[in-house]
Amino acid sequence: MPSPASTSKILFWILNVLLGAAFLAEILGPKASVALDQITIVLAAVAAVAALKRQLPLQNVLLAALIAAGIGGLTHAVSSSANFSLPFGPVVFGDAAGERIFNILPWTIPFLWVVAIFTARGTARLMLRPWRKVKTYGFWLIGFTALLAVAFDVALEPFAWHVKHFWLWQPTRIAVTWEGATLVNFVGWACVSLLIMMVITPWLIRKQPGNAGALDLHPLILWLGALLLFAVGCAGAGLWWPVMVDAAIAAVTAFFAVRGARW
Q1: pTM: predicted TM-score of the whole model, two decimal places
Q2: Which of 32-41, 196-205, 232-241 has the lowest mean pLDDT?
Q3: In which element (H, E) is residue 100 found?
Q4: Which of 10, 59, 237, 258 is 20 to 30 A from 178, comparing alpha carbons?
Q5: Which residues contact 104 (CB under 8 A, 6 or more apart)?
Q6: Which of 159, 146, 166 lies closest to 246, judged by CA?
Q7: 167-169/105-106 β-pairing
Q8: For residue 219, is the peptide bond before it cis, meaning its omega torsion is within 30 degrees of 0?
Q9: How far apart are CA 138 and CA 200, in angstroms?
């Protein structure tokens, strides 16, 4: 009879195989369905949680995921309100994003925040691995996670609006935009990501004996897989500037993450 550890490992890899199949279906399929889009988001979030669970107690990881989903979802719900467009700007969610919670927020948005924060944090840990014993490492990790979460959103925006129609940005007085999203959106992502990280970081500190700086490439693979999906979708829609930006973000992130992992 398999041990609990073996069973957990088997389930982890089954989950990742399912996620990989969903990614391939999204990329290679002629036109992915709304259901497949939603399944992919959920699988990516669960995979990110499962990966972190290999290092930390499950209750800690689940609490961190709930906090990330709650804060990210709540701030997006507030931003989409008819009378209050902060912190992200005036956004209207489309039906493709999923059924709305309390007729306000699509249920997929909290899962999307878990993917963004958890993969960004794991990738930031790889990039900062050479400095993990520096006293200010925790602050650097929070800052780099927020920076990578913003980069994730930069890659996501053209894909989510023009390709998948998850949401629609309303015109504002700010002339400078990135595929419809104003600079306020990215400032909002930075601030909300910093807030999430400041709240969840105490729960993500390893307190048991062991190697807290153990190498884990899973978040980076998820991160690069997401950017590949965004780039392929944008290429199919003829959005070549976003494709080039996605490729640049992926290349820079991979370079510094692999460099840190080899330390």
Answers
A1: 0.93
A2: 32-41
A3: strand 100-101
A4: 258
A5: 77, 80, 81
A6: 159
A7: unpaired
A8: no
A9: 12
Provide the domain count of the chain.
Answer: 1
Q: Report residue 191: phi and psi, to 5°.
A: -65, -45
Q: pLDDT value at position 11?
A: 82
pLDDT digits (tens, 9 = 90+) for 105-119: 999 999 999 999 999
Asked if 164 and 233 touch (Cβ cutoff 8 Å), the reply is yes
The rounded distance, in Å, linking the Cα atoms of 244 and 78 is: 32
**Rounded Cα–Cα distance for residues 167 and 157 (Å):** 9
Q: Cα separation of 145 and 28, whole Å? A: 30
pLDDT, position 222: 95
Mean pLDDT of 86-109: 92
Angle between helices 108-127 and 183-200 (to 10 degrees): 70
Could you list the beta-strand ranges (E) of 32-90.
none
The partner residues of 168 in beta bridges, in order of sequence, read 92
- State the pLDDT at residue 212: 54
Contact 114, 138 (CB under 8 A): no
How far is Cα 125 from Cα 118, in angstroms, rounded to an integer? 11
The span from the CA of 227 to the CA of 126, in Å, is 18
Token reading at 254: 């991979």
Instruction: For residues 46 and 65, give the distance between their C-alpha atoms in angstroms, rounded to a whole number.
Output: 10
The pLDDT-based confidence of 29 (bands split at 50, 70, 90) is: confident
Residue 223 sits in which domain range? 4-261
- Residue 243, pLDDT > 70, answer yes
Kindly report, residue by residue over 115-149, the tens digit of the pLDDT. 999 999 999 999 999 999 999 999 999 999 999 99
Question: What is the helix (H) or strand (E) element at residue 105, kind and residue range?
Answer: strand 105-106
Neighbour tally for 57: CB within 10 Å: 13
